[in-house]
Q: What sequence folds into this?
């Protein structure tokens, strides 16, 4: 019995040491992965990297991690494409807040110089202030003596965006912006806003002219590892997006 107790004590101690070693190793790996991701993606700050699954060391031996969660507070995605319904605007940047992605089946090379996830999914938010950059930023002539521009975007409730249009009619600026509700959608890598109805400015307007102000779209590409926007939905603080991808490169 005494020998059995000693064996049990030794087993518990060794198990505890293994757990400690495993957690130390995973912490080191997370820090290294975060630094490499910051460098490869040109991030302004170090992202959060969390390696899931236990034990970590056996995953390393197998050359593949079950799941890695990556969190980036402020990510600047590249943009190209249109404001309004006209021709595309010059390429620029748009800030994406709180990008969190779950990478699954992450295979890595022996020297850790590259890592690729079999699949990825995640969420993020584009604030209304950022999305407003895609709308017309200067007054547009809709008819003789009638100009208008989008001056604000906000949550319209029920998954809609509230678009505020400021207008001047025959030299007189309307006392308050006119609001319309818009449906937001995604097509490929482009986020689109389409007004459910035309703004009532007190004058008859051609639909294409009115929509040149109310409707807009913004292409968003260059997301980490080549992930793509899958869905979009208007929310209180901005447009919530979901992303997904396959064969996503974290490093290399």
A:
């Amino acid at each position: 019995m005494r020998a059995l107790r000693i064996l049990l004590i030794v087993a518990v101690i060794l198990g505890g040491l293994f757990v400690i070693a495993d957690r130390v190793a995973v912490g080191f790996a997370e820090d290294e992965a975060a630094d490499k991701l910051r460098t490869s993606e040109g991030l302004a700050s170090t992202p959060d990297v969390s390696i899931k699954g236990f034990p970590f060391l056996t995953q390393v031996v197998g050359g593949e991690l079950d799941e890695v969660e990556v969190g980036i507070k402020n990510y600047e995605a590249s943009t190209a494409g249109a404001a309004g319904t006209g021709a595309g605007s010059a390429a620029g940047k748009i800030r994406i807040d709180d990008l969190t992605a779950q990478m699954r089946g992450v295979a890595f090379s022996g020297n850790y110089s590259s890592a690729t996830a079999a699949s990825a999914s995640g969420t993020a938010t584009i604030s209304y202030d950022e999305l407003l950059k895609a709308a017309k930023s200067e007054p547009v002539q809709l008819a003789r003596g009638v100009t208008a521009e989008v001056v604000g975007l906000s949550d319209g409730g029920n998954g809609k965006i509230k678009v505020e249009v400021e207008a001047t009619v025959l030299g007189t600026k309307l006392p308050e912006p006119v609001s319309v509700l818009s449906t937001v959608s995604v097509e490929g890598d482009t986020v689109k806003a389409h007004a459910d109805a035309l703004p009532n400015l007190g004058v008859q307007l051609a639909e294409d002219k009115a929509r040149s102000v109310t409707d807009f779209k913004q292409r968003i590409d260059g997301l980490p590892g080549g992930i793509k926007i899958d869905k979009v939905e208007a929310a209180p603080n901005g447009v919530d997006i979901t992303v997904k991808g396959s064969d996503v490169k974290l490093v290399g």
